[in-house]
Design brief:
Chain B: Pfam families: CP_ATPgrasp_2. Chain B: InterPro entries: ATP-dep_Glu-Cys_Ligase-2, CP_ATPgrasp_2, UCP005522. Chain B: This is Circularly permuted type 2 ATP-grasp protein. The complex is a heterodimer. Chain A is mainly α. Chain A has eleven helices and no strands. In chain A, helix 9 runs antiparallel to helix 10. Chain A is globular, with a radius of gyration of 20 Å. The termini of chain A are far apart. By secondary structure, chain B is of the alpha+beta class. Among the domains of chain B are: about 210 residues, Rossmann fold, CATH 3.40.50.11290; about 55 residues, 2-Layer Sandwich (Dna Ligase, domain 1), CATH 3.30.1490.270. In chain B, strand 9 and strand 10 form a beta hairpin. Chain B starts with about 25 loop residues before the first helix and ends with a strand. The chains are: A mainly alpha, B alpha+beta. At the A-B interface, helix 2 and helix 3 of A face helix 9 of B.
Chain lengths: ~240, ~475
Amino acid sequence: MIARWYLIDRDNPNSVISVLTMARENARALRHLIPTEMWRHINMLHADVANLTARKVTLVRLNEICEQVRLGCQAHFGVVDSTWYRDEAWLFHKLGCEIERADETTRLMDISNYKLMASDNALLPTKSWWNWLLRQASAYQAFRRKHQINAEPADAAAFLLFDSDFPRSVRLSVLQAFSRLDELETDYQSAPGQKLLVARTALSSRLKNRPEPLAGETLHAYLDEVQKDLIAFADAIADRYFDGG
Amino acid sequence: MPSHQSLFDDYGVENGFCEVTGRNDDPDVSRLFLKRLAGRNLRTLARRQKGAEAELYNLGITFTVYSGDKTIDRILPFDIVPRPITAADFAELEAGVIQRIKALNLFLHDIYHDQNILKDGVVPADLVTGNKYFLKEMMGVDLPQGTYTHICGTDLIRDTDGKFLVLEDNCRSPSGVSYVVENRHLMMRLFPDLMEGAKVRPVSDYGQRLREKLSETAPDGVGDPRIVLMTPGIYNSAYFEHVFLAREMGVPLVEGRDMFVDENDQVYMRTVAGPEPVHVIYRRIDDAFLDPEVFREDSQLGTPGLMRALKAGKLTIANAPGTGVADDKAIYAYLPRIVRYYLDEDLKLGNVHTYICREKDDLAYVLDHLDELVVKPVGESGGYGIVVGPKASRKELDEVAEAIKDDPSNYIAQPMINLSVCPTLTSEGLSPRHVDLRPFALTGKDTWVMPGGLTRVALRRGSIIVNSSQGGGSKDTWVLG
């Protein structure tokens, strides 16, 4: 069953257990910088998944298992938010989370878009398609509050990319990453340097230039560019703060 | 009310002093253990013990074993029955530990300066200067407050009469204090019913005390010293403790590569805002790896130049390099004479009688009585290489006899000592299990002894080896009153 490959197979570097194991090893190495409560919670989440045997991962229990993992991840952010002293380590952690979040949203959109383009009625995104996409991103109810019932599918894509209040939108994530960088500079006298400034400006102007139409090949190409900008931004941060220092 | 059986009904101590029933005249011991604990339900206690161990695992209070690409986290097994120490017993222990540390620091200062004790023939010179932990680089180096062993963990046992005896003075880098504090926190959270109203002295301020004592030994003229904890890194089995201590003190945890020493012998640590000066290093890394400029050149764990900074008086290293001479098992035998030499006092906390195989008469006695003695290689720790005569096979005895004859100076021997016992939760109920005690003492201007300590317990019936690598666990230690 493919769910086992994605959940508990340690040969798959992207399986939930592989990723949680890596997260735990990272947490172990950074244990002196993170709250005890966070370390404890990662240990417990890891143990929950590590205890899943192939026999336990059945189609019948799949939803329950995935819900447990999802809830565990959300609880992780709650623990982090409510316990971490707001120091520079916290700033870097947030910075990483925001970039990762922006990136994940573009990938989710790209996969949905790809599926649509591969299907028969590729030309026009249907309402059911963007409905589904919004729900995948936990964005449906938020979107509903902002848009009337006659909203267009492109509005959904725009919401996920450009909304300034939805926590998983690319723009909000990126803006928050920017403000962490600003805090590093003002609170820790740690200026970003030229290379990072360039990457930041590029990412910023990319998000100001909305392509038309926000669907199909154009959307795919645009998401690709955003991802490249995010990678360049993250690389510039790594060069500035983590290599050689 | 159903009549309640006491958990102590079937508790029979076959040999050794019992930490609880041997102190049943103490009102606190009697009330908290022989009455309160005795009335508990065994199965409930066993279930709660499992819960406590799960909590230790969740909190990552573990030592980590790396095998191949796998990491295995093990907890130190935790026994929920605390080990009590009465106020009177603690006062005796405290005074004894302070005396020993005072003498050891004077001894270390002397052997790294004028060496009077060697000139006067009290301790054989070759035993000191030929010792593998003796560092000639420390000759003539003056340390703030004359403190060499800032952190000391004295291994104590109790003989059949309940008298404390010292097995070892761990002056280099004693570990285990994190368990003392975490075991206490665990007891307070999970067993409030056992602790309620008990006057147990707190151990939770260890980190703050440690920081104070380290500050007291900062280099002269440094008002607000920057302290760091230096670890060999994540693969060290005591890494959890390094993290714990850094956090409890509120100081950065660093590795050798996070620091550098400039041409003016000032130590710095790297931060995102640039280098910041470092004044005190609590290192949990052996002398040999500390500074590749002076010691092992191939050390990846150290920071080049630390010894320069120390000699220039710009850095305090705790414990000081070269301190290992003082806790060598061969020097231990001379401690009664060392205390008399410097303090003109009798030893308050006695030694276990020790035969020094390098001395001719002792060697002959040891070879003659191998089956009665415990033989220990000097300069080893963690219980490695120990041969317990009465429990060894003929073959093991023959092997150790050969080893001693080959290199007598490498061995000491002690009579078999029966460790005291403490009630411990087993599948059959409360049973006596052998325990030792490691109180931790911190020395800056003066010495503070933590009211508590690490009680290690040999979980196998009859075993007297309490080391965690060989089936030992731990208990919370309650200093009462």
